[in-house]
Amino acid sequence: MKENRINPSESDILIVDDKPDNIRILSSLLKEQGYKVRQALSGEMAMMAARAAQPDLILLDIMMPGLDGYQVCQLLKQDATTAAIPVIFLSALDDILDKVKAFSVGGADYITKPFHVLEVLVRVENQLALKAANQQIRQLNHQLEERVQERTRQLEIANTKLLEMALHDPLTGLPNRALFMERVLGEIARSHQEDGYQFVVMFLDCDRFKVINDSLGHIVGDQLLVAIARRLQEHMDKKDTLARLGGDEFAILLPAVENIHQATRVAQNMIDALCYPFQLERHEVFINASIGIAPSCADYSKPEHLLRDADTAMYRAKNSGRACYHIFDRAMHDAAVALLELENDLRRAVEREEFILHYQPIVDLALGRISGFEALVRWQHPQRGMVSPASFIPVAEETGLIVPIGNWVMRQACHQLRLWQEQKLATVDFGMGVNLSVRQFSQPNLIAEIDEVLQKNQLNPQNLKLEITETAIMDNPRHASQLLLQLRSRQIQLAIDDFGTGYSSLSYLHSFPVDILKVDRSFVKGLQGNQENLGLVVAIINIARTMGMTVVAEGIETEDQLWCLRDLECGFGQGYLFSKPLDAQTAGALIAANPRW
Ligand code: C2E
Ligand code: MG
Ligand code: MG
Description:
There is one protein chain. The protein is α/β, with parallel strands linked by helices. The chain has an eight-stranded mixed beta barrel, surrounded by five helices. Residues 360, 376-377, 388-390, 393, 406, 409, 435-437, 467, 497-498, 521, 554-557, 574-576, 581 line the site of ligand C2E.
């Protein structure tokens, strides 16, 4: 703090004494020092002077007729405008009691007459310096207080902003997941308190949004999200909440809903609203949305569960053709739970190797003899018994579990073929068909795995026939053609499974090195010796022949079908007519029996 040097010319001193001589002496002494001096000859005058303009200091005689010094001091201290003025008492009475009284009525200091000049000046200067210091402290305090207030205000603003940021999506400004969940929680509480109170949670997901992001870029994608948010908001009440959960996912909370129709109306309005194109910069963009609706019910205690069920219903909506809504029901929940259980069971099954292979013969139709087998996986579920691949392969595919399962199948099937060769059951050209799923087909280390298995079992690659579907090729044609060339260079045979059910495009065939077409059994089913029904099978067999491919007809169940296929000179066949898929031992026995058809 800077030193408080007094500038006398700025200090106004009031001298109060009923004796003019005293006043004169003091006045001239102080004026000499440069102080401004006023004078009062009585207590009453002193009060008037002090109130009219507050002096910086009062030198106050005690003994005066009328108001004496003590009374004047008391009056000054009682008045807020004059209370801060320091008072130095002047008295000839050098009595201890008087001094005490002087301080008790608010006096700041005490000078006894006759004065010592230097003492007067020092005491005056001290009081003025004290007063100045006090004033400075008050000013500083005031500034400090102002600063604290300003900082508090800024902090409050920052806090509000932080809270706003923590609860809102920065792109659209909509409430985010956290705020949405909080509001749903509030609604759950209300529905538990008020009988019959209902609300609805909806989950909205844009169809094909990724395509727009990928083709037009993220900036346009972001603009589109903002535009979607605005448009959706137009179809909502003030009391409703529209939140962005992330990506192209939005959630809607409709409180106080009378009935489900009210919610479906909102959902339909939103779907309709999104049908109109969005004009973004130079692009006209079309987008659809699928909506899942979860109505409240007493069972819900957690907001996540409502959102989860709305999400499940949204997926159902997407699967049933997009741009529509679906209402969640119990059966969907059960199906979702069952799927989850299946997935968990399947994970465990992989660890415990609960799988087994069955083998179905593939018959050379000209010779009527077994030419090889197709390996078909089964799951020996500890509770559910034998589970067919149709009910677990899709889940395995979706979860990626198909990769370890598929590897196991490949190892097991090759090992079995090796055993049959060692037992002299399988001839050198005996084939083993192994199914490859789409996911396996795109595994980067597939070829390495196959090489290792063939090597380990000392198999001729020509004996291995990999069965893939058209989808595996068409999902990523460039990758497929590279992979197929690698397989071809090893002379591993490649079969297109369920041919005719996928892309049904014969045109792509010649660009891929395929060895075998397995005609789907839905085509074989129609064969009853009636020439008109032969249609596609004839075409497929002819095309395969001109392209040097072999044909295997799947699902042969009747003699009629067999004769018909023989007539058409179809090379190979597979089906219940010959044999159902058999466990390894029974299949081995079948080879040994060397049946003829
Ligand atoms: P797929 O590869 O087309 O196998 C032929 C399916 O048709 C087998 O069903 C077989 O039992 C059945 N089948 C054979 N002959 C007849 C018949 O005369 N009539 C009828 N109605 N059906 C017949 P499965 O074993 O239930 O396998 C179903 C599908 O599961 C297979 O179709 C294949 O796509 C898949 N799959 C089986 N094992 C594996 C595997 O190890 N890996 C992969 N990725 N998929 C597999
Ligand atoms: Mg197959
Ligand atoms: Mg098939």
